[in-house]
Amino acid sequence: MANVMAGAGRYESWGRVVRHPRQAASLEALKGAAPGGLLPFGNGRSYGDSCHNDGGRLIPLRPGAAIRSFDPETGVLTADAGVLLSEILALVMPHGYFLEVTPGTAQVTLGGAIANDVHGKNHHRRGTFGCSVISFLLMTSDGQARLCSSDANHALFEATIGGMGLTGVIESATIRLMRVPSANVRQTVFRFGSIDGYFDRIDAIDAAHEYSVAWIDQLARGARLGRGVMLAGDHAEDGGPARAPSPPKLAVPFAPPVNLLNRLTLSAFNAAYYLRAPKREATGIVSWASYFHPLDAVTGWNRLYGPRGLYQHQSVYPADRARETTIALLECAQSHGAASFLTVLKRFGTVRSPGLMSFPRPGFTLTLDFANSGAQTLKMLDALDEIVLAAGGALNPYKDQRMSPCLFEASFPQWRALEANRDPALMSDFWRRTAGALDTSEKAARRAAGMR
């Protein structure tokens, strides 16, 4: 991987709530670095502060990143951590392969996909991205390069998958791809008139399809609460050759002075999108890019939320409480006068991740995003947190930039095991304000107990 010279760059997260130039460092700076001074940085698609270390410097992994090898016979690929998933797909699709797990954007780096243990629309079948990882080379501040797998350096392997870049810098990784008849998708789509229409059919949908995701009209009320559109899919037997998507024709080059995704605009959009969907199941072939990564077609779409950025709230909660918890979350957002553009509901299955800190767990996950309106938005997010906590759920750390240390611990009681494997040279703003605060509190309590 090419060296990256130290310098200043924007290195924003996707939420854009906190924006200012951040300092960069080369990978060579890792060896012998001061405690907490560095953090690897991929492509900035994490929504919050898990990709920031404003008290130190970032190690950008995109420059010079390349795919090192690909075997079309076995579907095994090795690439540098800074390679984008879109670059992997462009190489492997003509050979009849696809990622076993792909998140909602292909503009994620391979290292970021591992560090956040991302999930896709087929968690009920394939689990998380970490399930596809065979091995990776991990650089640590003691100057060592460790090959980590299920058989070698196993504790580091588990801690790094979902470890948010804190155990070391992934230099390269080897993953397993899946063979598909076509990357394009045979999509089954229909609309449902309320949240009951989703939960009454999701068992059959997931049993029949590789992929499923539901868009929810977060603004619908009363008997229409939770209405939405189901998008189920499978790789098409007759889908034809898959082509790399053309460069985006649409772009949001700068943030408008106001939030364009407000209640007025979203009410009209939601009604049109819902009514356009068929009442009964309709099936047809759609391109892989439009099914898996529709928003990648609009460069900088996150700027539509205005100059103050956005918060995304993604939670997971147990299946036996899912219907009432989903209703409570939707009603809570409505009661605060908030409007969510991307409201997505999916099932998480029982396939276990090899990662120590993986966010997905059996149940359902609801994603909501909101323009940052300051204190009133934070108050609403706190209220959403309480609903998730009461249901025995958890929040997604790489979508977060404000959860409390207590909610973090409730979501990830195993955090101390990651802290034990954290490279002392690496730190993020997220870890500092959550695990760091908990660790400081525990140490203070032990000191006080010793004094007594």
Describe, in plain words, how this protein is organized in 3D.
With 452 residues, this protein is α+β, with helices and mostly antiparallel strands. The protein folds into 2 domains: 67-179, Uridine Diphospho-n-acetylenolpyruvylglucosamine Reductase, domain 3 (2-Layer Sandwich); 185-410, Alpha-Beta Plaits (2-Layer Sandwich), CATH 3.30.70.2520. Helices cover 27% and strands 23% of the residues. It contains 14 helices and 20 strands. It has helices at residues 85-92, 110-115, 123-126, 154-160, 195-199, 202-208, 263-276, 288-292, 322-335, 375-390, 405-411, 415-421, 429-433, 435-451, and strands at 7-9, 22-24, 38-41, 57-60, 67-71, 76-80, 97-99, 133-139, 145-149, 169-179, 185-192, 211-216, 228-235, 250-251, 282-286, 298-299, 310-317, 344-348, 363-371, 394-395. An 8-stranded antiparallel beta sheet has the order 15-11-13-12-18-19-17-20. Strands 5, 6, 7, 8, 9 and 10 form a 6-stranded antiparallel beta sheet that branches. A two-stranded antiparallel sheet has the order 1-2. β5 (67-71) and β6 form a beta hairpin. It is globular.
